[in-house]
Amino acid sequence: MSLLEINNVSKIYGELHALDKVSLKVEKGEWVAIMGPSGSGKSTLMNIIGCMDRPSEGEVLMDGIDIAKMNQKELTLIRRDKIGLVFQQFHLVNYLTAVENVMLSQYYHSIPDEKEALEALDRVGLAGRARHLPSQLSGGEQQRVCVARALINYPEIILADEPTGNLDEANEKIIMDLFHNLHNEGTTLIVVTHDPEVAQTAQRTLFLRDGKLVRETVNENFTGEIKYEDWTENK
Amino acid sequence: MQKKRKWFFRMAFASLLRRKSRMLIALLAIVVGATILSGLVTVYIDVPRQMGAEFRNYGANVIFTSKDGTALTIEEINDGLSNVNSSQIVGMTPYRYETVRINQTPVTAAGTDMSSVLKTSPYWSVDGEIPDKDGEILIGATVAQNYNLQVEKSISVTFTPEEVAEEAVAFDNGDEAAEGETSTSDVVLDNYIDFKITGILNTGGAEENYIYMSLEDLEELTQIPTTISLAEVSISASGSDLTAVVGSINQNSENVSAKVVKRVTASETTVLGKLQALILLVTIIVLALTMITVATTMTASVTERRREIGLKKALGALDGEIIKEFMGEQVLLGGFGGLIGTILGFLFAQLISVNVFSSSIVFRPVLLPLTIVISMAVTAVACLIPIRNATEIEPALVLKGE
Ligand SMILES: Nc1ncnc2c1ncn2[C@@H]1O[C@H](COP(=O)(O)OP(=O)(O)OP(=O)(O)O)[C@@H](O)[C@H]1O
Ligand SMILES: [Mg+2]
User: Fold this and answer.
1) Homologous superfamily, domain A28-52+68-234
2) Among A95-109, A141-155, B204-218, B279-293, where is mean pLDDT lowest?
3) Which residues contact B214 (CB under 8 A, 6 or more apart)?
4) What is the C-alpha separation between B10 and A212, in angstroms, rounded?
5) Are B307 and A91 a contacting pair at CB < 8 A?
6) How many cross-chain Cβ pairs, A to B, lie less than 8 Å apart?
7) Chain B closest CA to A146's CA: distance in Å?
8) Is the CB of A82 under 6 A from ligand 1?
9) Rounded to the nearest whole angstrom, what is the distance from the C-alpha of residue B73 to the centroid of ligand 2?
10) Which of B111, B151, B108 is nearest to B129 (CA)?
11) Is the predicted pLDDT of residue B398 greater than 70, yes or no?
């Protein structure tokens, strides 16, 4: 059984088919990239997989359970148990420090634990910045806090919608390295991106156009190796 | 669970302290409301006492003193009253003043007729009862405070007769050898009576500095026959009629000097009730306004924090948790605002009292928890609708945009 199986999923806004009969499978531990032009339905698909939205038609099986017809509360419970989210616009709570932002995710999931949250920040190389507010962090550092927050509850799937869209090259590499680490630990990753280079680091790339799944490529050169490790020295 | 609760407060305090300017606006609204609320409630409670002082002349409208400046006897007073048509006499209260001691410090004691005192001083407000038998005593509020006296307690009142006072002087001047000999038989001791306190007197005036007992008790305590320092008389006449009656007393009686004192008509006491109703009305309006202000601030804050709410929902917050967080935060703020408001409100009431009634008021500790609880409740109610709306925010919509 696949971790995620989507069958004939459509999302219809009036006349517009943001998603049009999309079907796909993602296995446990896979690293999948999603590409496509603007407006092709990438975020719509991510929202449905992330239990933040429901499809108009079709079924979404997560661990074999159909979440397409679940109500808001049931979706929330699944989301906090199984999903870790990374957004393009970092989205941190501005009055909480880095470590507190990570703890917030623990709080909704189970119990806040400062020690564990600090360890997560250490993993993304931010141990020294744990007590800083988001406004005191650079964009790249903020996104690393988001990654720490997404991984803190050991989610089954990490969904990242344009995680490097607002970052420079150096920070992009750092985030991709973190994803490599997560992948090597067995975390399932689904990453939306415009950047072919980012997509190439994944095992498989899905292409969307006008809400339809139009193409799929497998990355033959995929090694799962970390390419840029120098950033970890200054943590 | 412990950790979750700790986190809950940590987040609430972070939100309040790190979003200072927003928090201060909401706090200001609450503080202004709480200040006016606690201030007005204080004035509301205190008005009857204050007005009692204003209306002090309601009741007695004539004062009898002696023509020669010494003292009166009951007979002389009755002789004076014989010039008045008996149906016009509402009441007469004699007063005898003596200096006595409580715990060795001097206090003015008034001997009086307790049964008639309310006819001539209806503005007296007594916590407890007015004494109705010998051995019972009424204590002025200031005295009660100074000696920490309460109703139902007993109190020993002493009086130093003149011989004793002289003895004491002699004793002080005597040499040490004389000391051993003066101890026993011929020493006259202080007189004393143990009284039971039946009531504490509040008038807002000088009466609060006195203690009141029956004329008989005061006579027994001093061992000096009763004389009357002055008598308050209430005669149901006014204007020229009253002047005529007083004139005939002064002319016909031997030792009574009668004077008219200004009397406020009974109907004016209804002003008191109306004033209280007005204050109550203003208080309710202020509460409503506070609620609207807090609700507006809260609505603005929710709009501003849509992204944060969407994010929290995306991270897995249930609607109930969002409500709990916002409520907790605002109710904390409400409690804090209530605390500041109580203090400012007391100063505000004090200002009103000093300026309008020229007397100060006592702080009522019960107002503190009361104002805090009301502030919390008002904030909670005011936040209800904006917070409900907050839970309708969709995580996906908020996170999509900038
Ligand atoms: N709530 C909505 N109501 C109506 N139309 C919507 C809504 N959300 C998305 N759409 C439409 O659905 C289509 C797909 O949107 P989506 O956000 O998934 O695109 P995207 O692939 O993520 O684009 P981008 O790369 O620009 O982020 C767009 O045409 C968009 O206008
Ligand atoms: Mg998008």
Assistant:
1) P-loop containing nucleotide triphosphate hydrolases (3.40.50.300)
2) B279-293
3) B111, B112, B113, B114, B131, B133, B134
4) 46
5) yes
6) 75
7) 11
8) no
9) 104
10) B151
11) no
Query: What is the residue-averaged pLDDT of chain A?
Result: 90
Q: Whose CA is nearest to atom 18 of ligand 1?
A: A41
Report domain extents, chain B: 2-54+269-399, 60-260
ipTM value, please give it.
Answer: 0.91
How far does residue B274's CA lie from ligand 2's centre (Å)? 67
Rounded CA-CA distance B390/A33 in Å is: 34
Q: Residue B153's CB: how many other CB atoms inside 10 A?
A: 13
Residue B27, amino acid: L
Query: Parallel, antiparallel, or unpaired: how do β-strands B256-260 and B62-66 relate?
Result: antiparallel
- pLDDT tens-digit readout, A98-152: 999 999 999 999 999 999 999 999 999 999 999 999 999 999 999 999 999 999 9
Domain range annotation of chain A: 28-52+68-234
* Average pLDDT of chain B to the nearest whole number: 84
Average pLDDT on B327-334 reads: 91
Choice among A191-200, A216-225, B285-294 with the minimum mean pLDDT: A216-225
Ligand located closest to A36 CA: 1
- For residue B45, how far is the Cα from the chain centroid? 8
Residue nearest to atom 5 of ligand 1 (CA): A13
Phi/psi at B243 (5° precision): -60, -40
Rounded Cα–Cα distance for residues B243 and B263 (Å): 13
Q: Does A70 touch chain B (CB under 8 A)?
A: no
What three-state secondary structure class fits B183? coil
Residues B235, B86: Cα–Cα separation, whole Å: 9
User: CB-based contact (8 Å) between A109 and chain B?
Assistant: yes
Ligand 1 atom 31: residue of nearest CA: A39
